[in-house]
Design a protein that fits this description.
This protein has 162 residues and is mainly α. Helix content is 65%, strand content 10%. It has a single domain, classed as Orthogonal Bundle (Ribosomal Protein S7), CATH 1.10.455.10. Strands 1-2 form a two-stranded antiparallel ribbon. About 7% of the residues have low confidence.
């Protein structure tokens, strides 16, 4: 029991150094999603360099900037396929916070992967973050299409408990 309390105190002291624990958590999770073949230091270097450039441009700290990016693109509803009596229905579900982290980082990395320009990954990421902060871009289009699909299938809400 004592060991758990020590770990919790340590975790709270680490997260208190940042302005918002959501941004710290999203930043660390996003770095983990960017990591390829175990090269976490390289992923951390890329993400933090992009954030430092943008923080100078927007005059915000990097943690506040990442928090603003997450709050802009996080989904509150997702659509899942539910099978009931030999037929499948698209059913809207509310999204928990840890799933919002995953979907937001997955959507960002998906748009970066589909961008076929011959520029560096850092440049693509910086441009996508700028698009997100200016309320446009492929990630927000993906979020809007998810919301439209949920709106069309709201009649299937009662299948959520199957």
């Amino acid at each position: 029991m004592v060991q758990k309390k020590k770990n919790n105190l340590l975790r709270k002291s680490i997260s208190s150094n940042y302005s918002n624990s959501y941004s710290f958590s999203f930043l660390s999770r996003f770095i983990n999603h960017v990591t390829k073949k175990g090269k976490k230091q390289l992923a951390k270097k890329i993400v933090l360099s992009v954030l430092s450039i943008l923080s100078k441009q927007y005059k915000l700290s990097s943690s506040r900037l990442m928090n603003q990016i997450f709050l802009t693109i996080r989904p509150f509803i997702e659509v899942r396929s539910v099978r009931v009596r030999r037929s499948s229905y698209l059913v809207p579900f509310p999204v928990k916070l840890h799933r919002q982290y995953h979907l937001a980082s997955f959507w960002i990395l998906e748009t970066l992967a589909t961008d076929k320009r011959k520029v560096s990954f850092e440049t693509k990421m910086r441009e996508e973050f700028v698009n997100i902060l200016s309320k446009k871009g492929a990630v927000l289009t993906k979020r809007a299409s998810t919301y439209q699909l949920a709106q069309k299938n709201r009649a299937n809400l009662h299948y959520r408990w199957y």
